[in-house]
Write a structure and sequence with these properties.
The structure is a single chain. With 308 residues, this protein is of the alpha+beta class. The protein is 22% helix and 21% strand. It contains eight helices and 15 strands. The strands form four sheets. It has a seven-stranded antiparallel beta sheet. β5 and β6 form a beta hairpin. It is globular. Its EC number is 1.14.11.55. Pfam families: PhyH (PF05721). It catalyses: L-ectoine + 2-oxoglutarate + O2 = 5-hydroxyectoine + succinate + CO2. This is Ectoine hydroxylase.
């Protein structure tokens, strides 16, 4: 596959050289999967708290479970803070994403709305891990609170986050990592996250153009930028499915290109998490690779200022 050359977006970070699209997607016809072209782990043992065993596991499987990332004394405060943020925001605030029935599904930019969530970003169990995995300074590309209330919470279809961030936000390379911190118990039956281990080593191009303002609908039910059923079946046949379960305070770290999804929550047991996306400052966003214009700042921060 020949890489595509694109002109960068104008502004203070624009470069004179064209930007290479190594992961074409949202195409008018299917093409073969593309092998990953970047490392999975950019730092070493000396660069952070993770052992070589943990780094090797993350490199192989694309994810890592970190118990007690947030201690028990933080959890009641964070749950209360989420309720406060939800009440304080205006009903029509675009950062609030609702289920079709009206309940809140996600709240974006919680680290800018809450000093307490901002402190979570900088915990010794969080920020140093992101820096180690990505090999240097990082910034928050996106942050949100995900709420999956009992009976009404709907799932997230199988997808690679990087596919969206590349196509719609202009993220050039796979050098980002997500940290999902559980605020409630994650059971196998209340919509907990499923991942396809090892799928992060392959980029799966998707077919179909990006609609105008696709984020208006994709944040509720994603249908664009997802692999077809044949592709997903082959990926699962090759790699299997793992499910994230565990007590509140546990974090799931996973690579930006790892295929993941979740089912709906038809139990009475709610599931919520703080979801933080760290991107390397060396991987700053350019012009979208497969969308007419960038998504709003609350979905994709374009400043690339390192978290101190």
């Amino acid at each position: 596959m020949t890489a595509v050359q694109r002109e960068p977006v104008g502004g203070p970070r624009a470069e004179s050289a064209a930007v290479e699209d190594r992961y074409p997607t949202r195409l008018d016809h299917a093409i073969d999967p593309i092998p990953r072209q970047e490392p999975v782990v950019w730092g070493g043992v000396a660069d952070g708290p993770l052992s070589q065993h943990h780094l090797d596991g993350f490199s192989e499987y694309g994810y890592l479970v970190a118990p007690e990332t947030v201690s028990d004394d933080w959890l009641p405060l964070l749950r209360h803070e989420i309720d406060r943020v939800a009440v304080d925001l205006e009903k029509d605030d675009p950062r609030v994403i609702r289920e079709p029935g009206g309940t809140i599904r996600s709240i974006f930019e919680p680290h800018l709305l809450s000093d307490l969530v901002a402190q979570v970003v900088r915990l010794d169990t969080v920020l140093p891990v992101a820096r180690q995995l990505l090999g240097g300074d990082v910034y928050i590309h996106q942050a949100r609170i995900n709420l999956m209330p009992g009976f009404t919470g709907t799932g997230f279809y199988w997808h690679s986050d990087f596919e969206t961030w590349h196509a719609e936000d202009g993220m050039p390379a796979i050098r980002a990592v997500s940290c999902s911190i559980a605020l409630t118990e994650n059971y196998p039956y209340n919509g907990s996250l499923m991942v396809i281990p090892g799928s992060h080593q392959t980029f799966y191009p998707c077919v179909g153009p990006t609609p105008e303002d696709n984020h208006d609908t994709s944040l509720v039910a994603q249908s664009v930028g997802v692999p077809d059923q044949t592709t997903l079946t082959k990926a699962v046949d090759e790699h299997d499915i793992h499910q994230f379960t565990g007590p509140p305070g546990t974090a799931l770290w996973f690579d930006a290109n790892l295929l993941h999804g979740s089912g709906s929550n038809i139990t009475p047991l709610p599931r919520s998490n703080i979801f933080l996306v760290f991107n390397s400052v060396e991987n700053a966003l350019t012009e979208p690779f497969a969308a007419p214009r960038p998504r709003p700042e609350y979905l994709a921060a374009r400043g690339a200022q390192a978290v101190a």
